[in-house]
Amino acid sequence: MLKVSHITMTNKQRYLLTDVSFVLPAHGFCAITAKEKETEKAISYLLAGMKQADAGFLQCDETKVTNFSVTERSRYRTSCVTSWFGDFLFLPSASVKENIVLQYAYEKTKVKQVLQDWQLSSIAEKSIEEVSFQDKVKTMLARSALRTYRSIIFYPDSTPFSKEELQSIYQLLKIYSEHILVIVVGDPACHAYSERILEFREGILISDNQADEEVKIQDIQQPGVIMQKEGWHAIFEEQHRRYRWPYHALKFLTLMSLILVCILWSTTSLDIVNIELGMLQKDKTNSFVVHKIAQGDDGTLYPALKTNLSSKDVSILQKHMKGNLLCSYVAVNATFANAYLEGIYDKEAIPLENYLPVVEANTAKQAGIKKLQGHYPTTFDEVCLSLQTAHQLFHQEIPAEKLLHMTISWYGLPLRISGVFEDEDGDKTANGVLGMHLGYPLYVKSGYLKQHPLSKMKSFPSSNKRLLYQDHFVNIQDIQPIDVFSRFYNGKQIVYYTPIAQDEIVLDVATAIEMGFPYERYANDETMSYQEKLYAYIRFADEMIGKQIQVQAYTIEATPINSMLYRKNVKIAGFLLPSMDMMEGNEQVKDATVYMDETGLADVLVKNVQIKQVTYQGNSVEEVREALQYLNTSNLYEISLKNSLLLQVLVIDFKELFTFFAIASIFFLGGSVLLYFLLLHKTIQHQQLACSVYYVFGERKDAMRKLYEKTFLRRWRKYLFVAIFITTILLWGYIILILLKLSADVSLLMYLLLPACVGGLLYFSMQLATRWYLKHSSLLLDAYAEEV
Fold this sequence. Notes:
- By secondary structure, the protein is of the alpha+beta class.
- It contains 26 helices and 32 strands.
- About 40% of the residues lie in helices and about 25% in strands.
């Protein structure tokens, strides 16, 4: 016997069961249904001993559950009830018998009897995965029979079974109900097998086909006028459950609308120039690096890619930006320059630091140097540098006074140190800005590079280079004019110098390897002599010499075709020969290079000096502001600051997405308003019957209209408050990040109040629109809608 006495269960603010009492026999088939799925789920979990009630008690024979503690419910589940929720609970790799017995020590005779009763003896040792669906159901029931439970709770809605499979389960449960109490919750299809049927509505037992006094539907007390608020709340709770997904969508659209509108406002109010100026002032500097954006041959800009500035670019910048522009120069082809210039001049054991850039200026002030010890270079054989650079050159800390008149070298020419300065502010000065990007530079007198041999050398422009051979590309590092000392194999013999035509090319060993010569195989073969390896190399060269190949050079790696600097079809005239160390694997083979006739490259060769970087230095805040304004309006040049990436992501990208945010704001805001009024229209239609009942009880239409407006807006107001709260947190996080990282001059109070102001404006607009809509809509059925 299972007794349920005065059970009450609630779910937050809603009653799932209200003072429910009934008694079920010791065996039989009982069906329980409810109009509300939450009630069905609550009573199934309650009877299964897995949830507690707020009031009342359960009693199964002598076992009584009063306070629904963990211990009481555990004892109840152990001795009184088994439940079936979800799919079969089987051990996949175990047999039928093992799934029945599990880990419990039952008597063998009892296990054997249960297997016989359920006709499972013949398949007892089979894997549970191999048996039929009906045998799986029998296994579940045999398991409970072996445990001698007094009742079984089956909740079909929680299972994945089809209607046909459920019918098979009910047939077996019907047989089992002769010995145990079977309770099926939530499926009217089981009524054909049931001796007892209990029906619930709104948490109240309204029908029991074998109770002493059947509870009639009409006996349930309906809320009257004095229950208006509670009844109205219940109506809207029911409608919220009915339209829960549209309400969730409205919540999401409201949140997104507020976020996007606030972002849209923020993108228009943040001034990039002021932010950049604040970043410079925070670092106490008036210097920054200027980059040039890569541009294709058709004029397409590639903002993510940068390219070197030319002297023409510097002239354009000087025209539009007041202040000083410091250009740092490096060799276009440092390897080529070193090969020609190193060793030519007497260097007297001085450090060779060819990789450092040089900056030309006339005075220390023009170079942005402060606290100079010594003097700024006045001749071309003098140099000025920072202590940081000196420590880097000499690999030790030398006092400034001892550094003066020491000598260093830059691409072969000696330079005497005439001045040393200590960059106390680090990367806040022009020297620091240069050092942060390129390594600290050397400062020389203006015009130094014109008289340097580097300017008289010719080099292929800085670019990406490759060969096109038989529809596939071979990347190379350099293209150079062929040298008179070049020793190469021309297909017939080894020559020390043989002029090549303008449409011919000579490849080095590294290029041969890139084109398919199996260098590793020969270098690692200790059984072959150098002559044998060289002969193998020559055989490879014989196959290649005379073939057509295309040389390409381009400036933008992402789009070679749109940035082609040089393209020419040539014939392979020969291959440079590898040394013995190369073929024995003792010398590293790198930097694939091809050689062409200098006259054929004359149109493209440039001086072996290029501008690596341009640093701007303003003399006043206004000069810096004007320079920033120009760069922010220019499509070709841009500023590079310490936190440029953060500035790009947090501010510039947001501003560039203004159109997107505007369209998205209109879309989400329009969608939320449309869905709001669609829900209002649907709920009015759905609640016309309930409103008519209130009207019959004496409620005025205007009072109901006001109450409907207040109740409907209350839920949306909750959504709006949540949206304001989330938007405020996001916006404040965004603004605080800008303040901390970018030093923007923005008002925290304005952004604190922005979501509230936008939300308040939206709320009052919707309130007026809702009032107008309700005034022109009928809350009552047509029979009661005629009254004025």
